[in-house]
Write a structure and sequence with these properties.
Blueprint (H helix, E strand, L loop, with lengths): L2 E6 L9 E8 L11 E3 L7 E3 L6 E3 L7 E3 L13 E3 L5 E3 L2 E2 L4 H6 L24 H5 L6 H15 L5 E6 L4 E7 L3 E6 L5 E4 L10 H4 L6 E3 L3 H7 L12 H5 L6 H4 L1 H11 L23 E2 L7 H9 L30 E9 L9 E7 L8 E4 L7 H4 L10 H14 L1 H31 L4 H35 L12
Antiparallel strand pairs: 1-2, 1-13, 2-16, 3-6, 4-5, 7-8, 8-10, 9-10, 10-11, 11-12, 12-14, 13-15, 16-17, 17-18
Helix pairs in contact: 11-12, 11-13, 12-13
Length: about 500
């Protein structure tokens, strides 16, 4: 699935939270309605069967409750996308990444083969449709998430290249699949952040640690032999660069992938490197952009929202720009595109009790025109305004209201953008205000049942505020767009 990911280590964030965030984007030619729900243990199957690959997998007993952002329309599987379980572990799934023919020839993807010509069907491996459901309900730490997914990949294989983040209050791990059955993973440094477009990102890897102590790295148990046998290490000095060994350096990356990473790094480290001009150290076409960096200042949720909504503001590549060469506007694939399905930012705060310390910030539709809203994640249910999405266009839910606002604001950009800016600032301000208010109530409440009641009350209060503000903004951008209709006329009787 096209998407963009950012990971923030606990000492790189403004309140020592760990944060993992991801855009989920539809593929070209369609949009995928999404919803925000809670999956209870009795809804988790004993045996999982993939819709796309037909693989069947027996699941462990005693699954945990978890939040998810699944497809709202049945037919292609669950695609749970991002979530937090009741053991206070989170994950994203997944970011489609790239590889090269040497890897795919050495360990081919496990592709579903339907029954035909008298032959039985051959199931495929696991993929983005499946991974959250197979992993998140059964893990109790980020490290355990890497280990469980790694075992599933080695056993069943995958039909696509993917990157997945795992998070707990202390650690973030990033896993990348290598071919059909192999994988590598690295712990995000506590003082750093990571930006990931749709390509293999890890730029250094310690195989010795990964195959022994596993302090900062993990991988398939046969990774050393796999690399040696297939001559995948391209370095002269023996220092493995996974991006060179396993990834891609296609011309298409310089339009679709590397510009996104370049812009996010440029935003969060504007003075650390030269990002443009004749003496630029990195450009939108650089294949050696750092996988992680220490930010120049601590990163906020608002910073994460900005970079995951960006369309190259302040550069010649902004499709909405009224400056610079016209032929460069929209030259690169934006991060905030029309096909954004949702954004989720999972924030694990260390200064609260675990059962109320995790916030899941949610936004739907094109990030250039939407708002990010906080909800307590360790809950038994989610507000109807975010969970009732169907295929029917309706202003009664956040997904479709966000889609309508985005389409109208884009078509009336110059007149509507200030409505969007006010909408975003007001909703995020009120979101912080309500969370602060309920945090104080929960600090005074020791009973877990009553804290759950407070969390549900808070989430519903936030949803009510959101529904009111979204309706108001929809009214405003509808007016601006209606005023630009081709049959408009200024003279009237009154």
């Amino acid at each position: 699935m096209p998407c963009t990911t950012i990971l923030v280590g606990k000492h790189a964030s403004y309140d020592d939270s760990t944060m993992i965030a991801r855009n989920d984007d539809s593929g070209a030619g369609h949009f995928t309605p999404k919803k925000f729900i809670v999956v209870s243990p009795d809804e988790q199957p004993a045996e999982y069967e993939s819709v796309l690959s037909h693989v069947k997998i027996k699941l462990p007993e005693n699954p945990l409750r978890y939040t998810a952002m699944p497809n709202a329309v049945e037919g292609k599987g669950i695609w749970a996308a991002s979530g937090v379980n009741e053991a206070h572990v989170a994950m994203t799934a997944t970011e489609t990444i790239t590889s090269n023919p040497r890897v795919l020839g050495a360990d081919p993807l496990v592709v579903y083969q339907p029954a035909e010509d008298g032959k039985e069907e051959i199931p495929g491996g696991i993929g983005e449709e499946d991974i959250v459901c197979l992993v998140l309900p059964y893990i109790h730490s980020a490290r355990e998430g890497v280990q469980r997914l790694g075992s599933l990949l080695e056993t069943y294989g995958t039909y696509e290249m993917n990157g997945i983040a795992f998070q707990d209050k202390d650690e973030i791990w990033w896993l990348e699949t290598i071919g059909g059955h192999h994988w590598i993973a690295r712990r995000v440094p506590d003082d750093s952040y990571v930006v990931m477009p749709n390509q293999l990102g890890l730029d250094q890897f310690d195989l010795v640690d990964a195959l022994s102590q596993q302090k900062e790295f993990m991988c398939s148990s046969d990774m050393w032999e796999f690399i040696e046998k297939n001559h995948l290490d391209l370095s002269f000095n023996g220092k493995l660069n996974p991006r060179d060994a396993f990834g891609s350096h296609d011309d298409a990356d310089h339009v679709y992938n590397t510009p996104r990473a370049w812009f996010m790094l440029r935003c969060l480290n504007p003075h650390t490197k030269a990002w443009e001009g004749p003496n630029a150290e990195y450009t939108p076409a650089s294949d050696d952009l750092p996988w992680c960096m220490v930010p120049e200042k601590k990163i906020t949720v608002e910073d994460v929202k900005y970079v995951l909504s960006s369309h190259f503001q302040g550069t010649p590549y902004d499709p909405y720009a009224a400056y610079g060469p016209e032929d460069m506007r929209g030259a690169f694939r934006s991060i905030g595109v029309n096909r954004n399905d949702f954004m989720a930012v999972i924030q694990m705060r260390p200064d609260m009790e675990e059962d109320c310390g995790i916030l899941e910030w949610v936004a739907f539709a094109s990030n250039a025109f939407n708002v990010l809203v906080p909800f307590y994640a360790e809950v038994s249910d989610t507000p109807e305004y975010l969970s009732n999405t169907t295929a029917e266009v309706s202003t009664d839910n956040f997904y479709w209201c966000s889609r309508l606002i985005a389409a109208m604001a884009d078509a009336s950009y110059k007149k509507s953008i200030f409505h969007i800016e006010r909408y975003e600032e007001h909703v995020m301000s009120k979101g912080h205000e309500l969370i602060n208010r309920y945090d104080e109530l929960m600090r005074k409440e020791s009973d877990a049942v009553k804290r759950m009641e407070l969390k549900l009350e808070a989430n519903n209060a936030i949803a009510d505020m959101l529904k009111k503000e979204a309706a108001s903004t929809l009214d405003q951008v509808l007016f601006e767009l209606s005023s630009q209709m081709k049959n408009c006329y200024s003279r009237s009787d009154a």
